[in-house]
Amino acid sequence: MEPIESQGMTKTHVLSGLPRWSLAVPPLALIVLAVSWGSKPGVILLILICAGLGAAVIAAVHHAEVVAHRVGEPFGTLILALAVTVIEVALIVTLMASGGDKAASLARDTVFAAVMITCNGILGLALVVGSLRHKTQEFRVHASGSALAVMTALVTLSLVLPTFTTSTPGATFSAAQLAFAGVASLVMYGVFVFVQTIRHRDYFLPVTEAAEEDAEDVHAEAPSTGVALVSLALLFGCLIAVVGLAKTVSPKLESAVEAAGAPLAVVGVVIALLVLLPETVAAVRAALRNRLQTSLNLALGSALASIGLTIPAIAIASIWLDGPLVLGLGGKEMVLFALTVVVSMLTLATGRATLLQGAVHLMIFGSFLFLTVSP
Hints:
It is found in: Membrane. This protein is mainly alpha-helical. The protein contains 14 helices and 2 strands. It has a single domain, classed as Up-down Bundle (A middle domain of Talin 1), CATH 1.20.1420.30.
């Protein structure tokens, strides 16, 4: 069996043609998760948790790239986005079930944070890093524009409208409205995935000229099906470890946030940042290879998956969850979302990205972080 080339890694491979470190990290990270789960970690255990979290992120990106190389684009980016989101949704529902009234706005805060992180943080970082190396990068307007349109509709229907409906008090949906929002979200996301992977798959492929610049990455022999399946299993293991370890450190984060006098919403943003680390690293690496379309697929695809899967999941979970479910955004969040949509439309309108566009997105992301800490 031919070994797989992995950037920056040795060519020494063992089981299934994968590097030793990529085979060892997932089980070790899961062991750290099992040992630390439900405990109050001390300094040594906290260091181990942080080390396991970082290693699991790196391993997740590696295995995602192996799977992507086997199945091709845009399936590879879709697998990573879906895997992270499914585990994240399971974590949200679990926390809501055990959090009582304190978790009433957890889904809203997490989904909105994911949108701002992906559409401004990940996208802006990819644009800046890619532009610093390649000056100007090209992407496909049809793909990115359609993803932005779906994302705008999803956020508006699921997170903006609850603030203005009158059937129930507060920024909430009635049972019928929540059911409709869940079905609409699932349908729109399902149609987008169909278009991305089948109907117009060519729209979401990297621009030919950019892809050819990394000839080794494009023309290297694809891994076997067995290797890809092993990597897929290890990818899920890594993502479970990332989300679980992020939850494990959340009590320490809460204590630090309370000690600093900052809002508890900061904890949700930090957890979202940790959970989205695999997509962030993968998007930046793609931008460095002058494959900005892959970075856009990851950023916008993650935002779509987060909304399109979370809203239907909590709509179903609300059947047995007690207490109100706050989904509507406040005025500050709606202004940031509107600014994000307008700037994203201008960024994605030309098919060419520069350093300036990336800097603008990062400044919006910085504003979101600042206003979360200082509302």
